Amino acid sequence: MSILITGGAGYIGSHIVERLIKNKIKVIILDNLNTGHKKLINKKAFFIRGDINDKNLVKSILKSYNVKTIIHLAACLNVNEAEINPQKYMENNVKGTENLLLSCKNSIVKNIIFSSSCSIYGNINGAVNENKKPNPEGKYAYSKYLGEKLIKKYSKKFNFKYGIFRYFNVAGASNSGKVGEVEKSYGHLIKNIAIQSLKKKAVIKIFGNNYPTKDGTCVRDYIHVSDLTDLHIKGINYLIKNKKSFILNCGYGKGYSVLNVVNVFKKIKKNLVIIYQKKRFGDVPQVYSNTKKIEKMFKWKPKHNDINKIIRSAIRWEKIFNKTNNK
Ligand SMILES: NC(=O)c1ccc[n+]([C@@H]2O[C@H](COP(=O)([O-])OP(=O)(O)OC[C@H]3O[C@@H](n4cnc5c(N)ncnc54)[C@H](O)[C@@H]3O)[C@@H](O)[C@H]2O)c1
């Protein structure tokens, strides 16, 4: 079996690649290294530096490697940038997805996994399940919503099955110490915590403290990247075995406020300074997952659902990455 993984030089992609290689699967990575990182590229994978918008390139990869399964992660995901430059998100995330799908015409591709986002739900009171009508707020969320629509449309046209995973907030790093989150520009809270953990005087900014939530800060559902990786393996196996498409939330079903998470960090870094700043556009007050469907379908029991461990795992990676990068 060979699997094409777009965005395989990125944070989540490199974890999935590491696991697939461990399972002795032939992996082809297509990544333009826009936010991907050379150090995250698995040496045992076939790496092609290129763009999902390059239809001829994608077609030739599908053909020469006999690709039956694609895991499509390549995307831009800077929520603030998407508001300033929505065209970039339409070109890269929406047109890019469509071009990738069009390249599957007359190929042997039978399964596609697409990384969507919980942001397509908009603001939610209580745990959200997969039947909730999407209400994307913000241009990044909208690009993911349109991506889902394209996957469904072309699945009928080209006769492949799909697995749409709606990730909640992904954090942490692989136990191997070889892959983790590198890109800093997204403003992900746990990545920021990891960066600050290495500083003498740590400072964390909290954006908004008067949201209609328990303590006024945003509430999110954090999933460890290793559990998310497991879900992709289960997803591929499910598609191959059952030949049935699915849409699934990937979260733990527990909402932590930003302040909850920062307070966990404060126990590790006693001199932490917390600064409150004004709200960021596109941040909904609260979103966390209803996990019933994924638990039932995949008989899934998460292994890393502990916010302390997630934070410590991200900090450990930050230390390793900084050490090797400064050599
Ligand atoms: N990190 C999260 O918390 C989170 C949450 C929800 C959804 N997602 C989705 O997961 C996927 C992976 O995100 P990540 O956190 O690993 O980010 P990332 O930036 O580390 O990975 C994205 C990868 O895609 C590559 N890429 C982007 N555009 C490309 C193009 N046109 N052609 C080829 N390669 C391209 C980048 O170089 C990068 O390696 C994305 O689709 C993102 O929208 C992530």
What would you note in describing this structure?
It is a single chain. This protein has 327 residues and is α/β, with parallel strands linked by helices. It has two domains: 2-171 and 223-250, NAD(P)-binding Rossmann-like Domain (Rossmann fold), CATH 3.40.50; 189-220 and 253-325, UDP-galactose 4-epimerase, domain 1 (Alpha-Beta Complex), CATH 3.90.25. The chain is built from ten helices and 15 strands. The chain has helices at residues 11-22, 55-64, 79-84, 86-102, 139-158, 189-197, 225-242, 258-268, 292-298, 307-325; strands at residues 2-6, 26-31, 46-49, 69-72, 111-117, 127-128, 161-167, 169-171, 203-207, 219-220, 222-224, 246-250, 256-257, 273-277, 288-289. The strands form five sheets. Strands 3-2-1-4-5-7-12 form a seven-stranded parallel sheet, sandwiched between helices. It has a two-stranded parallel sheet with strand order 6-15. α1 crosses α7 (225-242). The longest helix has 20 residues, at 139-158. The radius of gyration is 19 Å and the shape is globular. The model has no long low-confidence stretch (mean pLDDT 96). Residues 6-7, 9-13, 30-36, 51-53, 73-77, 92, 96, 115, 117, 167, 169-170, 183 line the site of nicotinamide-adenine-dinucleotide.
